[in-house]
Amino acid sequence: MGYQHIQVPTDGEKITVNADFSLNVPERPIIPFIEGDGIGIDITPVMRKVTDAAVRKAYGGARSIAWMEVYCGEKAAEKYTGDWFPAETLDAIREYVVSIKGPLTTPVGGGFRSLNVALRQEMDLYVCQRPVRWFKGVPSPVKEPGKVDMVIFRENSEDIYAGIEWKAGSTEAQKIVDFLQKEMGVTKIRFPENVGIGIKPVSAEGTKRLVRKAIQYAVDQDLPSVTLVHKGNIMKFTEGAFCDWGYELAREEFGATPLDGGPWHAFINPKTGKQIVIKDVIADAMLQQILLRPSEYQVIATLNLNGDYLSDALAAQVGGIGIAPGANSSDAVALFEATHGTAPKYAGQDKVNPGSLILSAEMMLRHMGWKEAADLIIAGVEGAIGDKTVTYDFERLMDDAKLLSCSEFGEAIIAKIG
Ligand SMILES: NC(=O)C1=CN([C@@H]2O[C@H](COP(=O)(O)OP(=O)(O)OC[C@H]3O[C@@H](n4cnc5c(N)ncnc54)[C@H](OP(=O)(O)O)[C@@H]3O)[C@@H](O)[C@H]2O)C=CC1
Ligand SMILES: O=C(O)CCC(=O)C(=O)O
Ligand SMILES: [Mg+2]
């Protein structure tokens, strides 16, 4: 495919996908990357350097990555004369199957809608997978951060988060209010004259495809539980339905049966013979549970907005969003990204923690089957933190730590990779 501004490396090859969604990864795959806005300029080059070092060390030159820059956000607007979201970026991410991105700015209140959400929606990357674990030595506000070891499966395509909403005072908002009042008999809109309206779509199909991935992950990783997190007591037909459909899927596809009369369910992991419990917790209570009883939770399956809140809250328990990786994926395409945003006040200062994006690259390498390189990244991060050579976010909370810049932290990881 010919691109306008994307330079396709001539010395790399495409990753391709088989009918069963397994990958064919060449020795020098072309990996698209979006640098990102704000601190993207600081963390993305460091992520690339660390990834290249891990791949080199693991495979001694037999494997390498052909990085291909693609554009979105501010850098795209400059290159594509005002187009923040170029179509060819989507084409490249689809075509090359595995890619990674830095954070992108979204204005609050007005302005354009989130480019991050748009990328997920346009490519139907319906799973947002965010692992949360503690690395030894990382400062934490809780007494036993090592008890936090969870993977969030956040539904990425539906919910109020999808941004179907109309501004207070607009003709569209008024139309919806009129429809609700006149045709649906709604009497509970407290101030109908000047009210913004948002829509929260949650479907059986959207829920089940997400919960399927979460339960399959527990099966594959030999984990004892999956927790459906929802606010179904209040939003019965959206969040409540998410919970009901989650249990239904567990029954239909994994043979789960109610435990002690329900609502919790359980089934035997066909790979290990061990029991997997499917349980549910209401979202506000879950925010308490993750602090007080984290070891009871391994896999969380939840709706889009709950997943957004839980991601940052859980990250804080293990050192903050400077070290919180993630992946957005459909069955075929995966786009890796950090949990945090553009942290604009630090942009260009070579200051922030590149750990989230580096660990996102670690997830990417594992997804590609390059396990040895992924393991080296984990060893490098553990080694640098173990030596107390860290960026400002950790240094300010640690005794006797050495403060490193963003790029120096990358070098410290590379030194540990060897
Ligand atoms: N997927 C994406 O691309 C996302 C984009 N965004 C967008 O990013 C912009 C800024 O959002 P904001 O709410 O400020 O959230 P951010 O996640 O960008 O930053 C919030 C705070 O988190 C800490 N932090 C974030 N990243 C790092 C890092 N790499 N290392 C160390 N500390 C870090 C900093 O804390 P401290 O001040 O304590 O040092 C920072 O001030 C918005 O436009 C938002 O929409 C937000 C989330 C995700
Ligand atoms: O897109 C954004 O600006 C915010 C997204 C976000 O916070 C997230 O996905 O965790
Ligand atoms: Mg978020």
UniProtKB/TrEMBL annotation:
Keywords: Glyoxylate bypass, Magnesium, Manganese, Metal-binding, NADP, Oxidoreductase, Tricarboxylic acid cycle. GO terms for biological process: glyoxylate cycle; tricarboxylic acid cycle. D-threo-isocitrate binds at residues 114, 116, 120, 130, 154. Mg(2+) binds at residue 308. The modification Phosphoserine is found at residue 114. Binds 1 Mg(2+) or Mn(2+) ion per subunit. SMART domains: Iso_dh. It catalyses: D-threo-isocitrate + NADP(+) = 2-oxoglutarate + CO2 + NADPH. It comes from the Bacteria. Its cofactor is Mn(2+); Mg(2+). Residues 30-413 form the Isopropylmalate dehydrogenase-like domain. The record marks 161, 231 as: Critical for catalysis. Its EC number is 1.1.1.42. The keyword Oxidoreductase applies. One of its GO terms (molecular function) is isocitrate dehydrogenase (NADP+) activity. Pfam families: Iso_dh (PF00180). The modification N6-succinyllysine is found at residue 101. InterPro entries: IsoCit/isopropylmalate_DH_CS, Isocitrate_DH_NADP_dimer_prok, IsoPropMal-DH-like_dom. SUPFAM superfamilies: Isocitrate/Isopropylmalate dehydrogenase-like (SSF53659). Belongs to the isocitrate and isopropylmalate dehydrogenases family. NCBIfam families: PRK07006.1 (NF005425), prok_nadp_idh (TIGR00183). This is Isocitrate dehydrogenase [NADP].
